[in-house]
Write a structure and sequence with these properties.
Catalytic activity: L-threonylcarbamoyladenylate + adenosine(37) in tRNA = N(6)-L-threonylcarbamoyladenosine(37) in tRNA + AMP + H(+)
Low-confidence stretches: none
Strand content: 15-25%
Bound molecules: adenosine-5'-triphosphate, magnesium ion, fe (iii) ion
Radius of gyration: 20 Å
Mean pLDDT: 97
Structural class: alpha/beta
Shape: globular
Order of helices and strands: EEEHHEHEHEEEHHHHEHEHHH
Protein name: tRNA N6-adenosine threonylcarbamoyltransferase
GO cellular component, one term: cytoplasm
Keywords: Acyltransferase, Cytoplasm, Iron, Metal-binding, Transferase, tRNA processing
Subcellular location: Cytoplasm
Strand order of the largest sheet: 3-2-1-4-5
Number of helices: 12
Amino acid sequence: SYILAVETSCDETSVSVVKNGREVLSNLIFSQIETHKAFGGVVPEVASRKHVESITLMLQEAVEQSGISPDKLSAVAVTQGPGLVGALLVGIMAAKSLAFALDKPLIGTHHIAGHIYANRLVQEISYPCIALVVSGGHTELVLMESEGKFRLIGRTRDDAVGEAYDKVARALGFPYPGGPYVDRLAHEAENSADLPRSWLEPDSFDFSFSGLKSAVLNVLNQTKMRGETPDIPAIARGFQESVIEVLVEKAIRAMRMTGASELLLCGGVAANRGLREALAERCDREGITLRIPPFAYCTDNAAMIGAAAFLKLQHGEFAPQTMKAEPGLSLEEWSVGS
Ligand code: ATP
Ligand code: MG
Ligand code: FE
């Protein structure tokens, strides 16, 4: 099968053609980061307009690069949610028009299912498995008993990891998106600031990062009030250590509790060097198989949407032309065969 996939949930416009849910024939990504940088974050209205500007040409280009003639496509897939409603709508309108014109089925796809199934673009997944999803808008532990079945066993109660990284980075004086700057600084730092860990209830798989973020802001303010210069690298390292310790510990605990065979790390923060290293080291010690997609498939891209949509194609679960954008689409409800 050949799926043409479209992703416009946030600030990346992306179109891809994926064969059999695994093989990427084309994957064009246009990042709007340079545009949003000036505002210190993603401006929804601006994001929508940028998607409109590039989507048509990208559709054409992605099909051309794939070498597949449009009538050979099996379906047109598009991110239905979660994401920014205006941004999602641009992709959905484009996908609907194309599906209608080519007389192909439409597949509404879950963005986080995409982040998880990005793993399948490089390797088959064994079930049951646990996915640790760490991105700009999500921090979740997902149990998959079998293919395409998602059960949320933990989630953040406030900020997502990526969001916390970006907010802390901003306070430390770095541009948007600041995650990679904090990551780099944490590695160079000689000292580490002592910052709290948020474990929540002893058996909880939920996360909370807003307290840690506040603690960083307090350290900065107090240092400045004393007329001293804050040790920025030490704060970055302390912050990163706190985040990583909690993520790793809860992911390992979820693996033990469920007896899952693999741990998948996915989402944009999976690019974090400290997290990759700490998780790899710990999984090695515990005898756990860890899977992390290559960098290009960690951040937003349409190939991962094609990989997730393949599950729906196999089950013949298509969306009507009346499909709406769902900014709060539930991952569990998106499970195949439900
Ligand atoms: P969602 O997938 O939840 O809708 P999103 O698509 O905006 O959110 P992604 O594109 O998956 O999020 O990830 C972007 C986030 O990843 C940003 O917050 C960015 O700072 C963070 N990030 C990227 N690289 C790193 C890194 N090396 N260390 C920490 N964070 C990082
Ligand atoms: Mg993005
Ligand atoms: Fe994403």
